[in-house]
Amino acid sequence: MRLPSRRTAAAIASVLAVAAVVFWRLTEPDPLPASAIPARTADIANGEVLYHAGSCFACHKAAKGAANPQLPSGGTPFKTPIGVFYPQNLTPDPETGLGLWSEVAFVTAMARGLAPDGRHYFPAFPYMAYRAMRMTDLLDLRAYVMSLPPVKAVHPPHTVPLLGLARRGVGLWKRIALARPPFNPGSDGSDAWKRGAYLVNAPGHCGECHTPKSWLMIEDLGRHLVGGPHPGGEGKVPSLRGLVTREKYEDASNLTLALQNGEELGYEDLSSGGMAAIQENLAKLPESDVRAIAEYLLSLK
Amino acid sequence: MSLTKRTLAYGAGLSFVVAGAWGAAFASDPAHQRHEAMETVQESFKPLRAIAVKETPFDAAVVKKTATTILEKLKEAHGLFPEGSGGGDSRAKAEIWSDRAGFDKAMKDAQAAAEATAVTAAEADYVAAMKALGGSCKACHDKYRLPKQ
């Protein structure tokens, strides 16, 4: 092979340099300013409701063999098509958890998908849904996890190819994905329906599994909650539409009972593909919230 | 016997064997059989649930009969997971065979829970027994069954 001339080499180098600068600028993080945080006293009880509504524990559960298995110290491998993630320790341990995170750092993570040091989070962490959460709910959620006992838990790094570059590249994905407005239940419908719509689509992030994704890994809202391939790679996720016409549940009371009890009362569709853990979290919600979720889901034809 | 007659006789015999084997293969497809058994289990849960949520009154005889059906069908299904019977339309996860001991324990737990439910004589103990039985189904399905569309 003939070596390229000095001039060609210089041209290639400058094109690459320009591309690198453009990439760097396009993927720059966009954290929230501290002024975005209102001054208020957090409601820890409301934070606990959101913690269960989001099934935070289903992904952030303690790794096998942890001393406090009921605390969200993270580290249980989370397998995705692009690699294995080790979810963050959500307890307030200052070294390995959220202990030193300010309110704005927590809200920036949830609503902008950014770590306190400005690195992008992979959307395996469902900030696409969480960004639709109310600011006050986010702050209450932070107050709740900060009220948990701190656990020191060191996790292995994610096993994603070219982790650093891929992480920065998430910034490009965000330019497209976050350009879509966050979910908004609108002003029509009963209060219960709106509450259900909010719980399902914002903290609940049900669409992460129940809505098919485009090739860009963005939820296809034209097929909102119609089910599709399981993101874990095996099996299929059921549709949440037409639950009554397809004779899955009789009515909202029946679905409420199913979400509260799962297969303990023989509702066998709530036990596979990771749904068992979600159902256990939903069972901890106030009954009015479970019923709101049921009413909203049954309105999806 | 003429050649034609012999051919006919062999032909008839052969088609009989082939048809028999085909029928037997379908009827003895373990994935199909265990699915049928589990469908019966699922159906049996309906009267048990109705009692638990107080739609129908507690009746020890109904509970015994229904839970015994569940126990029998669970035992039947447990014997229908031979190596290599996953894949295709089956929702059986590969973990059933890679973690056979764990799967067998989960199946035994379910059978023990069905037995305990069957002998529940007092209404006060019923909901806990039934939930333990349902919980044993859940524990096994969570680990060893694929989700469906």
Structure description:
The complex is a heterodimer of chains A (301) and B (149). Chain A has 301 residues and is mainly alpha-helical. In chain A, 41% of the residues lie in helices and 3% in strands. Chain A has a two-stranded antiparallel ribbon with strand order 1-2. Chain A has a two-stranded antiparallel sheet with strand order 3-4. In chain A, helix 8 crosses helix 12 and helix 10 (252-261) crosses helix 12 (287-298). Chain A is globular, with a radius of gyration of 21 Å. The N and C termini of chain A lie far apart (63 Å). Chain B has one domain: Cytochrome c/b562 (Four Helix Bundle (Hemerythrin (Met), subunit A)), CATH 1.20.120.10. In chain B, 75% of the residues lie in helices and 0% in strands. The chains are: A mainly alpha (301), B mainly alpha (149). Chains A and B meet through strand 4 and helix 11 of A and helix 2 and helix 6 of B.
What's a concise summary of this model?
The complex is a heterodimer of chains A (301) and B (149). Chain A is mainly alpha-helical. Chain A folds into 2 domains: 34-177; 191-298, Cytochrome Bc1 Complex, Chain D, domain 2.
Features:
heterodimer; A: 301 residues; mainly alpha; Cytochrome Bc1 Complex, Chain D, domain 2; 2 domains; two-stranded antiparallel ribbon; globular; B: 149 residues; Four Helix Bundle (Hemerythrin (Met), subunit A); 6 helices; 75% helix; 0% strand
CATH level 1 class label of chain B: Mainly Alpha
Integer count of domains of chain A: 2
Main-sheet strand order of chain A equals: 1-2
What's the structural domain tally of chain B? 1
